[in-house]
Amino acid sequence: MIRESQGYFSLVQYSEFPERAEFVNIGVIVFANASVFVKFSHRPRRAEQAFKIHLGNHFQHLKESMEDRLRYEFGNGWNREKIEKFIALRSGKVRLSPVRSVLVKDPEQLLSELFEKLVGEVPSSPRGQRPSTKLAQVFRSNGVEDFLVVKPDPVHLSGGVKIEVPFAYQNGAFNLIDTVSLAGDPDKALNRASPHMIEGELLYQETALDRPTRLVVVGDDAQAQDAEFVNMIAEQMDRHHVRFYSLNEIEPLVRDIRQNYVLHR
Q1: The 213-220 sheet, strands edge to edge
Q2: Partners of 70 in beta bridges
Q3: For labelling, which of 47, 176, 220, 221 has a CA lying 20 to 30 Å from the CA of 35?
Q4: d(CA 25, CA 15)
């Protein structure tokens, strides 16, 4: 029969702005049976969404640094006083929550249960799912799918440029809605976004006197990027007469589609 023993646990917490005292849980540490057990989030989605940042490889470095410190401090055992001293010395963007006592039967099982309950993983979108598919799901969930033109006719511009988009709608101008992935390295994300700026400027220049047509671009995975980068993309889009929205903050676009559908029926 496995007997319960006295143990402790602490949450590993991250904040991009520690001075605000706003932290999110990114891991759990369990002290049990003279050993230390630790489990971190596989990816930093919760922190990135909370603070509108992109941690990238820095998150892996943070985890490795904490694991190294734990091995160094508690490789020869632990007691509550030593744990509390270690916690008190943590500062900056990564901190540990006050230690809490817990009865332990199976440390690994307890670690998994605490992680699932107090940290968890933010589910990602299905791998390989196209931004346009995600956008269609968002439009459907917001009840505006039937208010859109699906796969409108391509728009042909000078120089052989052809613009094909998955959706369109009318609001005084004919709005072509396209998507762009902003995932991954910012340089690559910018390379994917830049052609839309050129297309938007050409649309504005060549359709202004005939049938005004504008480009609307929805950025997927914008929440994974630094807020400054996303703001830069939005500003550049606007300078080229492109309206920009991120997929996780699409309410203004949905509202415009719904209101103008009623006006133009």
Answers
A1: 149-150, 167-170, 174-181, 213-220, 242-246
A2: none
A3: 47
A4: 9
